[in-house]
Amino acid sequence: MYSKYIYLLILVIFSNALKSEGFGTFGLDIHHRYSDSVKDFLDLDGLPEKDSLDYYAAMAHRDQLIKARRLAVTPADTTHLSFIIGNEDLPSQFSRIPCDCTNCARSLNLTSGKPLELNIYSPRNSSTGAPVPCNSTTCGRRRCSVTRNACAYQEVYLSSNTSSTGILVDDVLHLATDDSQQKVVDAPITLGCGIIQTGDFLDAAAPNGLFGLGMDGVSVPSILASKGLAANSFSMCFGPDGIGRMVFGDKGTPVQKTTPFNLKQSHPTYNITVTQIIVGKNATNLEFTAIFDSGTSFTYLNDPAYSVITKNFDSLVSEPRYQPDTQIIFDYCYELSANQESFFTPDLNLTMKGGDQFYVNEPIVVIPRKGGYAYCLAIVKSEDVDIIGQNFMTGYRIVFDRDEDGFGLDRFRLL
């Protein structure tokens, strides 16, 4: 995850979760913005019917928005905040919320027909909040806003003219531990005060903010660990219904194998190495790196990994190829007969560096067609970064352990 964010609506927080030896754990339920629970709550105007071709197209469009941010090399105009240091910005990993907005979404439409007014945050109205000074160690190489005398940030996406511009703010995150005592903990946190939001941030993409989970020192996991409140790790799990769970401080179990992160990058991400691809019984030794990104709906792979999986999969499928009348992002789809009640798909397994086996639980999606159904191998051919998306992560509790065994080595684990 280049800037590992969760584009999910957080509805229910701080329930029961696993414990971590010597630390507290803090858990929350997460709901994908296309899940039924969110659709029942919010009136998402224009949201296509679940599992329709338009539904998958909308999810793919959102994926492209996220991917475009990773590839952005030139930030948008920054004159609104009068930056005094350069035009480069570091990929930020902190949480961001609308704040003292001059341009942002201020309400969401509910299914009841009534608008839900968003409570826009302001550090001026917080007894514990204060802007981060430009000369602070937290600000580092980031830019400075002259007009606000505060450390500034800007996140720019290349599609849909989408961006978030603002300043960094120190405040307190109020948490409750997952044990039976429900101990209240106040965790100091640095977050992005999003003053100017543009494009999809005004409605479709995270109108009420983003949750930062990256390796940067100002991300939520880093802050909880630095204050001794939780182990420097967190876990995520996703079910097929789009509802999942995130737990800060979760170290997993001793029986889990580990896969090391690839950290020889200017901006470390949750990047791992795959050493082998197995489709059915066909094993291909092939080494490539990929980012595990819960914020991306589908899995995006370059050649040769893409061709190895798709061609082996295609050779083992008995149904005829299917080409939808409307454009679809998946290249390999197969037609089911009108009275067909079941079908076989080959197993897909990725072998990680270190020997861990990642069996993909849901490599396909079922789509409607005239007179019946079809299914598609839910992998998209990439022309840039390799991403293991949420569809491949479904059914796993994945632990991102950032200081395994106290050696300062980041580890990726699967349960």
Automatic annotation (TrEMBL):
Keywords: Hydrolase, Protease, Signal. GO terms for molecular function: peptidase activity. InterPro entries: Aspartic_peptidase_A1, Aspartic_peptidase_AS, PEPTIDASE_A1, Peptidase_aspartic_dom_sf, TAXi_C, TAXi_N. SUPFAM superfamilies: Acid proteases. GO terms for biological process: proteolysis. Residues 106-410 form the Peptidase A1 domain. The keyword Protease applies. The keyword Hydrolase applies. Residues 1-22 form the signal peptide. It comes from the Eukaryota. It holds the Pfam family TAXi_N. Belongs to the peptidase A1 family. This is Eukaryotic aspartyl protease family protein. It comes from Abeliophyllum distichum.
